[in-house]
User: Fold these one by one.
Assistant:
Number 1:
Amino acid sequence: MAVRLSSLKPLTVCFSVSVSRNDCGRRFLVPNLKPNSSFIRCNLRGFAEMAATSGQESRAKVIDSHLHVWASPEEAAEKYPYFPGQEPSLTGHVDFLLERMEEAGVDGALIVQPINHKFDHSYVTSVLKKYPSKFVGCCLANPAEDGSGIKEFERLILEDGYRAVRFNPYLWPPGQQMTNDIGKAIFSKAGELGVPVGFMCMKGLNLHLSEIKELCTEFPSTTVLLDHLAFCKPPMNDEERQIFSSLVELSRFPQVYIKFSALFRVSRKPCPYDDLSEALSQLVTSYGAKRVMWGSDFPYVVPECGYKEAKEAVIHLAQQVPLSSSELEWIMGGTIAHMFRSPWLSS
């Protein structure tokens, strides 16, 4: 293709344009100038360089919506003890995580307080303070009957800078539900503070569905995150189909978001978990990509398939559906980045 520049008369310069690619695979136009147009050649070379650079800078950030970190054995002995009986068998310290993130091309993450430290948030807090542009914290709700967990929740949010809270129903006192006075107080306060509440339904969504519906109905301003597809496996019988339908039906609450995370926990197949493509399709259809977010469940995912491979599995499944590139960008980081706004959108 030939283009003629004649705006700088009497100088007239002819050049051709070819298509090239930068390191991100994005296409841009590279002008091929005649040798005697040195002034224009210099400026258009700068244009090509800027095009390549802007392509790199505009790469959508990949944000992991669900992972854990805990102290190394040495750190636990010195400063950050494990909760008795919850000593980890896997490596989960932050330096190990950062290595895996760099290798996988993951830019940031939401750190969920691990059970290994239970309600002692000091290790995760230290990580958040050390890497404020990389991590956001999700604290663990303490449903103690004396109500002390309510004030502790507010302190973690307002003083230590946590941005989300996790409800683990199996930490509630025996015979009590997340809809008791303590649960409602924390859930309500989370809405007032703009803090999403994550639900871990490890023993099955059907056991906690009524609680989640009641809380969403009574407190519509509180954002909800359903961890790990609410532990719904790809349905193979009528009971499982009913449970998965319940997950889809929760999309009627506009405050509910889905973590397409810890795929190894819900898939019946090895990585890249091909049996989850239909589930992904249904969730994006019902919730929209802007309410779905990828998560790894590091470090548990490492021995299962590898951290980088967990990220790539979601991309593979998106291609199977198929999803648009825009939908995939929302799932791989856009949804959670917009939910928390900073630090990822500004860094």
Note: The first strand starts at residue 2 and ends at 5.
Number 2:
Amino acid sequence: MYMLQVEGPRKLVLFKSHGIPEDVIDNTVQAAKSFFALPESSKMELDIHKTPNFKGYTALLGENTDSNGLGDLHEGFDIGWEPQATDQSSSSLGPAKVSAMEGANVWPSDLTGFKETTLEYYHRVLDVGKLLFPLFALALDLPENFFDDKTTKPAAIMRLLHYPPQSPTSFETDPDGRQIGIGAHTEYDPRLINLHCFTILWQDRAGGLQVQNTAGKWVDAVPIPGTLVVNLGDQFARWTNDVFKSTLHRVINRSGVERYSIPLFFGTNYDVLLEPIHTCVSPGSPSKYEIVTAGEYVKSRLEATYAHSQSAT
């Protein structure tokens, strides 16, 4: 495991020996490229607004992560937990239908192998995520197995993302940077982007991910081949009463080529109450957040994120 420290407490964690074969990653990236190359009409058949649980396709400018922005310059495809066709024992391990966020994925009908390839990578990254919870428990002075019964049906949303190249001179016509790949946000931003405990991100070599240091300067998180980036999310911020916080970050694709990335947002069971963990509350640090279930919270934040594009449909 490698640690990229931007400045002071602001960090991104880079995993080198994550155990996911390169061919599994390569096949998933190729599947993403094939999907995004489809005609817009075919992709819009899977429009995310057509589903009650925010699964499917998000068109270019369909999100607006920064409330001061003009829409995000990327398109995406979202899936949630689903057993692999070859896994006959896992049908009982996914989320039970107890939340408005849970439900079936939608898949393109004209891309042979797309579903199988995407789910293969999804489950591989899910296994990586399960290895992280004991580490977080120990960091919070909790038993190593503290999160085990809260992640039996993990709410993990994965996104295939495609960023068209953004002109290096775009800031000449948009000096405030109001239209970029993904607008500036933290992982506990009230508009998204990571509403879960943490993100596990694969990114290609195009770069574009930037984090803001404590001096307010944007610093490139340069891609390192063979690594996955881990960043904390707002479920942990609420759950730990802000003991865990995340870093302001954004994406600007000035590489001159198309950029692809695959984040998986790893969360708890949707029915888990996000009440402050006892080791994170004290007389000097009382509870800061309203107690809600993870599913209720995720759904409310996603509704806020997609509100501007929903009103345009």
Note: The CA atoms of residues 187 and 193 lie 6 Å apart.
Number 3:
Amino acid sequence: MNVFSRAIGLRRSALSFGLLKNFVPKPVIFPLGTTIRTYCYGYLSMKPKVYVTRNDYARIGMDLLKEECDLSIWDEAYPVPRDEFFKNVAGKDAIFCSLNDRIDKELLDQAGPSLKIVATISVGFDHIDVKECRDRGIRIGYTPDVLTDSTAELTVALLLATARRLFEANKEAHTGGWKSWSPMWMCGTSIKNSVVGIFGFGRIGQEIAKRIAPFKPAQIQFTSRTDKCFTAEELGVSQVPFDELIETSDFIIIACSYTMETANLFNDSVFSRMKPSTILINTSRGGVVEQHDLIHALKAGKIQAAGLDVTTPEPLPLDSPLLQMSNVVILPHIGSADVETRTEMSRITACNILAGLKGVKMISEV
């Protein structure tokens, strides 16, 4: 028997005993667009509230959440300002965020005890205070596996663009620098017969190695915090100490996570030990590289060139010396930027939120 049948039964019983003899029912006015069923049942099954930090996430994630949640969305295609975030996060059950959104103690205090889930549409989660979330029982979802291939592809593209001076050559073609064929003009560096070093050999690092191999380097070597001898043997690569990696590699690709141990690891001391012909590629996090030291190393000829998909800060200020250097390729953090990957990242982030709210296993949880 549902709630309406019970109410009718109770009213009839009351009438039969004369309890409602002089009762005149008052009309109930429902909010516009609300049915009696949703009005009555709304109090029995309130939808969880989710705050979404921008309006341009792939639609599939929003559609999934709208089916089961009440969404509050920062209605702009750029990161929500901190003060707006604070105004709107209180009382929410979950947050759908990106690496641009700092989730720290101050924001968690503002959100209050109702917050159960923080889901980020990224593989990195250094923008989230993980310890503070765990202390409060807040679960964290992220998207590590889906962007592995797209980031590996972009890394190889960035390596080729930097080594073969593609952006320099393109600029010359557009500005009149291309006069005629010249035997040594715009010559770059070949991957063939080179030594390629990869710092960080997780999922992305391994996929980079697989994509580099067909270019026939003399050796692919890597440094990892854990022993990966079986993986190395399977892929035909070598695990070496960090010192050997930076001193012997012609290309150094940074593919590690950003942690306290890796923060500013690539500094002047490290650059000074590289070959002057070394080309540095970074598609991990800008904070792994001490940027002022990198600028000095490039100007001083300690290394040959750099390709960066990540910087500190992001976006890079237009007056940054890095943007004035012809031997530097800068991309605006587009490692995972293909339509299929970003769409799947949105879906997974939404699914992580829904799973967390239901108390079941997320697709990917920190």
Note: The first strand starts at residue 49 and ends at 52.
